[in-house]
Design brief:
Strand content: 5-15%
Strand order of the largest sheet: 1-5-2-3-4
Largest sheet: 5 strands, mixed
Low-confidence stretches: none
Helix content: 25-40%
Number of strands: 5
Amino acid sequence: MATDSFLVERPVPNSDACILIGRVAKTLELPAKPWHAVLWIVDAAGAACPSPFPAAAVTLFPVDQCGAAQLEAAVENFLVNTPRHLPSIYVTREIPPEHESGFLSAVDVVVASVESHHRARVTRQQDAFAWQRHLFENSSDYIQRRLPDAWEGALAGLPAFICGAGPSLDVSAPA
């Protein structure tokens, strides 16, 4: 449902969470959903507008009173607490000119964080079984064939190539 209320609409099917960036106009039309979690990124003056969401669902982030690191932490925390589906993203047209740069930065942070979480979730879905299988296949070797203490520092000062945190070398090396 594209409306004139939004500059950006990225709805996620089956998601009950959303990130709303910008002030809320009286004519704002959001999809009629039972929103259970909402991160509303708005300037302090815009936060005085009535929210179109249930008060218990809204986490308010004042874009003009907090820094980029605080915004990043708030977005990361919100995404971690919505593990089932990524949130829908809506950017309203109600961006006051004096706060435009803050809202642009907020959009950048939100998009980067959501894309990062999306990649991580897709990777886990695709590779989690292989990771688990390799862990169980290799666990007896890890336990029984530990490196001897005498080898400590044997490669000190030499370049090294370390492979890890992947399903296996044959899958990870080409990437």
